[in-house]
Amino acid sequence: MGIAGITGRLGALCADEARSASDITLTGGLARVADPGRAIVTDPGVLAAGCDVLLDVSSADAVEAVAEAAMKAGCALVTGTTGLGPAQEAALRRASGVIPVVRAANFSPALNLMLLAAKMLAGRLPGFDAEIVETHHRQKRDAPSGTALAIGEAVATGRGVRLADVMQVDRNRVRAEGEIGFASLRAGQIVGEHQLSFTDAFEQITLGHRAFDRRLFARGALLAVRWAAGRSPGLYGMEDVVGGGFPD
Ligand SMILES: NC(=O)C1=CN([C@@H]2O[C@H](COP(=O)(O)OP(=O)(O)OC[C@H]3O[C@@H](n4cnc5c(N)ncnc54)[C@H](OP(=O)(O)O)[C@@H]3O)[C@@H](O)[C@H]2O)C=CC1
Ligand SMILES: O=C(O)C1=N[C@H](C(=O)O)C[C@H](O)C1
């Protein structure tokens, strides 16, 4: 496997996990500055040509080139990069017509179970106000986090609406019926916390997840890498990777 973003907070941990796994060979990585001594290149095409799975934990502005390179090389792509815009989303969809693409805003299997719970509760609590709060370290570039957006998608799907039609990040207004509110906090070195609450006049239900150690994501990423190797083309998620581990 190769890692786009190998010098980053998550990429370096993924590299550690890969080096200590007996069933995975780490072929190299991608960053903005090459380091031949550590097999770090700046051309995603070179990285993709040498591996059967490319793990992308880089930055939104690298995703199109990484997806294109994986598609040309015919290797599987596992991507956990967040903060994507329409062009990057389209690049992943395009690639998934040719290669297997696993896309996961959050590599924690447990967090992905929370998405199922969110969808189930949202459908059964249609009149409750849904609010999502996420907290991350001060270096995080995107808000709301990719996971918060995935939680929002789960709530919207459970209610049979489009997230784009009901999402609200601007709280300088009275709350509209049915909106899904998002709030983002940035502080210190917090690894990642997500909370979803459903509230009406009488009660509140809250689902929450707290990541204590970023290694959680690295381990989940490697589960996805193992699963993606040799798959048929398509767009997959962590729910496919964990498969039978999840109830219907
Ligand atoms: N799905 C999940 O479970 C998780 C996802 N993430 C996501 O992963 C991504 C990375 O997070 P994190 O490790 O904290 O970020 P960092 O900023 O620590 O790392 C980013 C990495 O990407 C590389 N990079 C950035 N821009 C480019 C570019 N244009 N071309 C090539 N390489 C590039 C950097 O290399 P250099 O700076 O050396 O050039 C670095 O190796 C984020 O989108 C984050 O939200 C994070 C945690 C969990
Ligand atoms: O940038 C991070 O650190 C994280 N990003 C992901 C996100 O945007 O949801 C996942 C995790 O919460 C950590």
UniProtKB/TrEMBL annotation:
What is the name of the protein in this document? 4-hydroxy-tetrahydrodipicolinate reductase
The UniProt keyword set, sorted, is:
Amino-acid biosynthesis, Cytoplasm, Diaminopimelate biosynthesis, Lysine biosynthesis, NAD, NADP, Oxidoreductase
Report one GO cellular component.
cytosol
Write out the GO MF terms: 4-hydroxy-tetrahydrodipicolinate reductase
Keyword DNA damage found: no
Q: Which organism is it from?
A: Tanticharoenia sakaeratensis NBRC 103193
Broad class of enzyme this protein falls into: oxidoreductase
Q: Which Gene3D superfamilies match?
A: Dihydrodipicolinate Reductase, domain 2 (3.30.360.10), NAD(P)-binding Rossmann-like Domain (3.40.50.720)
| SUPFAM superfamilies (UniProt xref) | Glyceraldehyde-3-phosphate dehydrogenase-like, C-terminal domain (SSF55347), NAD(P)-binding Rossmann-fold domains (SSF51735)
Q: For this protein, what reaction is catalysed?
A: (S)-2,3,4,5-tetrahydrodipicolinate + NADP(+) + H2O = (2S,4S)-4-hydroxy-2,3,4,5-tetrahydrodipicolinate + NADPH + H(+); (S)-2,3,4,5-tetrahydrodipicolinate + NAD(+) + H2O = (2S,4S)-4-hydroxy-2,3,4,5-tetrahydrodipicolinate + NADH + H(+)
**Superkingdom, taxonomy of origin:** Bacteria
Keyword Nucleotide-binding part of the UniProt annotation: no
Q: Where is the Dihydrodipicolinate reductase C-terminal domain?
A: 111-241
Give the Dihydrodipicolinate reductase N-terminal domain ranges: 2-107
GO BP: diaminopimelate biosynthetic process; lysine biosynthetic process via diaminopimelate
* Pathway stated in the Swiss-Prot or TrEMBL entry: Amino-acid biosynthesis; L-lysine biosynthesis via DAP pathway; (S)-tetrahydrodipicolinate from L-aspartate: step 4/4
Family membership: Belongs to the DapB family.
Q: Report the EC code(s) recorded for this entry.
A: 1.17.1.8
Please spell out the taxonomic lineage of the organism that makes this protein: Bacteria, Pseudomonadati, Pseudomonadota, Alphaproteobacteria, Acetobacterales
